[in-house]
Write a structure and sequence with these properties.
α3 packs across α4. This protein has one domain: Lipoprotein like domain (Double Stranded RNA Binding Domain). It has four helices and four strands, in the order ααβαβββα. The chain starts with a helix and ends with a helix. The protein has a four-stranded mixed β-sheet with strand order 1-2-3-4.
Length: 169
């Protein structure tokens, strides 16, 4: 067997040995799941906030395991809507939804702030002549922003908790 083939066969073992974990993989590392599940997502006001809260709870604890709360996640949400594609008759054909989220991860016992950050997502939609279709299109854009923000927040929290674990080890 040639050296290049041997190197190719052994490279996955080398990545595993150095602690490499794919961040955007479907399955998370087993060591990360308990830490993420230990985050309690505090209530977020408004309809979009409720959607984000439920999405975060599902993303942080997908199996619904009962774990002791070690961290609290405080989330502040701000959203705006803008009309784009303004026509001569002052109507618009496109819209944009911007959602900004400030997240603060605190220790559940001491209330010490562990991480603070801002995540932002933008999604556009068509403004149709049918009112119902236009409303559904805008709601879908808001749902897409929630999905994007959930992935972004989960990724950040994963990195923060990995760094916490490394510091304590």
């Amino acid at each position: 067997m040639s050296w290049s083939r041997r190197l190719l066969l052994l490279s996955p073992l080398a990545l595993g040995a150095c602690g490499f974990h794919p961040l955007y993989s479907e399955e998370t590392a087993a060591v990360d799941e308990p830490a993420l599940a230990a985050i309690r997502v505090l209530p977020i006001p408004d309809r979009l906030g409720q959607e984000l809260e439920l999405s975060l709870r599902e993303a942080l604890n997908p199996h619904g395991e009962r774990t002791k709360t070690l961290y609290n996640l405080v989330t502040t949400l701000a959203q705006s809507r803008a009309d784009l594609g303004i026509q001569r008759d002052a109507s618009s054909t496109r819209g944009r939804v911007d959602v900004h989220v400030t997240i603060t991860l605190t220790d559940a016992k001491s209330s010490k702030v562990i991480y603070t950050g801002v995540a932002q997502s933008t999604s556009s939609f068509n403004i149709l002549t049918d009112g119902y279709a236009a409303q559904i299109s805008e709601e879908d854009a808001r749902t897409r922003t929630v999905r994007d923000l959930t992935v972004e927040i989960r990724t950040r929290l994963t990195l923060v908790l990995r760094n916490q674990k490394k510091k304590s080890a």
